[in-house]
From TrEMBL:
One of its GO terms (cellular component) is plasma membrane. It comes from Clavibacter michiganensis. The keyword Nucleotide-binding applies. PROSITE patterns: ABC_TRANSPORTER_1, ABC_TRANSPORTER_2. It comes from the Bacteria. Pfam families: ABC_tran (PF00005). This is ABC transporter ATP-binding protein. InterPro entries: AAA+_ATPase, ABC_transporter-like_ATP-bd, ABC_transporter-like_CS, ABC_transpr_LolD-like, MacB-like_ATP-bd, P-loop_NTPase. Keywords: ATP-binding, Nucleotide-binding, Transport. Residues 2-243 form the ABC transporter domain. Gene3D superfamilies: P-loop containing nucleotide triphosphate hydrolases (3.40.50.300). Coiled coil: none annotated. GO terms for molecular function: ATP binding; ATP hydrolysis activity; transmembrane transporter activity.
Length: 246
């Protein structure tokens, strides 16, 4: 689970400051895909950056499980981001010289602790199979389509088994058909793996892939739409208890 508790973020603007995130409280429960939408400049990407521990908020708590990331040092935040948070950007940002499998192996190598390389390779191959790219494990980015590159990026984000997945506009560079496939894949993997997923999108064509949709306007939450039932048929609460696991 990830929980933002009364988070505020401001940036300098000449002699004053502009508020990007204004007292936002938001929970992304485990196994649920929570979408964030809103007009350009509404603060949705700033919320994602705070959740990713890339920016420390002015005030409020950022709970990843039971850890308040807002209180961590840069080194501690980096370790948490490396091992506990998967991030998928608008562009796949793959290393041109590495194969699809190697993209995952490098990320696993960066993970904390000693790793069994044979087990890591099996895990990488299993993830590539899960995203439909088992037959393309040996291909480099230039040999893959845009949708395939985004699938590799999703698998890479999950290779260290994070409890939280943060996704920024995953369909922005894809046509509608490929975008729908990527959204469905993210939802499927989040549900299967119990991953708390926050996904920023402006494209509500793919609304059906989201379990909940949070609308942000001027840095504030303007509304929350619930799908009603989660993938197991249980009722979804708007804000689970802060102490809930993951």
């Amino acid at each position: 689970m990830i929980h933002l508790d009364d988070v505020t973020l401001t940036f300098p603007d000449g002699d004053s400051r502009v508020t990007a995130v204004d007292h936002v409280t938001l929970t992304a429960p485990a196994g649920v895909v929570t979408g964030i939408t809103g007009p350009s400049g509404s603060g949705k990407s700033s919320i994602l950056a705070v959740a990713a521990t890339l920016i420390r908020p002015d005030s409020g708590r950022v709970l990843i499980g039971d850890v308040d990331a807002a209180t961590l040092s840069k080194k501690e935040a980096t370790a948490l981001r490396r091992d506990g948070i998967g991030i998928v950007f608008q562009q796949s940002n793959l290393v041109p010289s590495l194969t699809a499998r190697e993209q995952l192996l490098v990320m696993a190598e960066l993970g904390g602790g000693r790793r069994d390389r044979t087990a890591v390779r099996r895990r990488a191959d299993a993830l590539l199979d899960a995203v439909g790219l088992a037959a393309h494990a040996g291909k480099r980015p230039a040999q893959l389509s845009g949708g395939q590159r985004q699938r590799v990026a999703i698998a890479r984000a999950l290779v260290n088994d994070p409890s939280v997945l943060l996704v920024d506009e995953p369909t922005s560079a894809l046509d509608q058909e490929r975008g729908a496939e990527i959204m469905d894949l993210i939802a499927q993997l989040s549900h299967q793996r119990g991953t708390a997923t926050l996904l920023v999108t402006h494209d509500l064509v793919h609304r059906a892939a989201l379990d909940r949709l949070v609308t942000v306007v001027d840095g504030r939450i303007a509304g929350v739409e619930e799908a009603g039932l989660d993938h197991d048929g249980a009722s979804l609460s708007a804000e689970p208890p802060v102490g809930a696991p993951r």
